[in-house]
Amino acid sequence: MIVSHKEEHYLTLTIARPERRNALTSAMYHALDQGLQSAQADPACHAVILTGTSECFTAGNDLTEFQAHRSAEDSPALAFLRTLANINVPVIAAVEGHAIGIGVTLLQHCDFVYAGDSALFKMPFVSLGLCPEGGSSTQMARLVGARRAAEWLLLGKPFNATEARDSGFITAIAPAGQALSMAQETATVLAKQPGQALRISKQMLREPGRAELMQTFDTERTHFNERLQSPEAQAAFQRFFER
Fold it and tell me: Where are the domains of the chain?
């Protein structure tokens, strides 16, 4: 489930499915999307915090949902990512524990990312017979450089909070268990900023490259849907379920 909590000037959306390591379902993506849209529609909202439970940010997409037929339209996950990439309200992520798959992808579209010092990140798309999604095929190299992006996306190499910070992928490291507190401090500062100036400034920062990003979403969607039906992916899913 997604727990939504509104403070006076910011909204917190918490991924709360600890029994499945916060693996995301279609219903949860829809709830995240709706939460972001509600923040965008509220002039008094100056920030959104995205976080998970204290032990885990998210294990990524619930793989059982990859077995369902995909249409040519956006999946609930991609619809959420489009909203995340397009809203003008600043978005702050607070990461503890593991961030896997789309749990890493979504961080590319946040404005501030704070991670506990024991956080671990991984994008195992290729090992699952899949391909990058959510803009990763272009955004990751721009954020961290082509060589590191190749390690993380092609090799599926895990990386820790120090590597994430030193590469510029996250904003700062917090002591374990304190990432949310750091995110709340930033939200409090943003809450004191003039709201319209804040939103237009974020829009100006994000506008260059927006059209290319939306095109990348479309291209990745086509390849990702094809990969889901591939023998490689189906075999990888079967091995996962057998474990």
Answer: 2-177
pTM for the full model?
Answer: 0.95
Assign 231 to helix, strand or coil. helix
DSSP category for residue 230: S
Cα torsion 47, 48, 49, 50: sign: negative
pLDDT tens digits along 166-197: 999 999 999 999 999 999 999 999 999 999 99
CA distance 126 to 193: 42
* Count of all residues that appear for the chain in the document: 243
Assigned token pair, 23:
């693996």
DSSP line for 60-113? -B-GGGGGSPP-SSPPHHHHHHHHHHH-SS-EEEEE-SEEETHHHHGGGG-SEE
CATH number 3.30.1330.90 given to 2-177: no
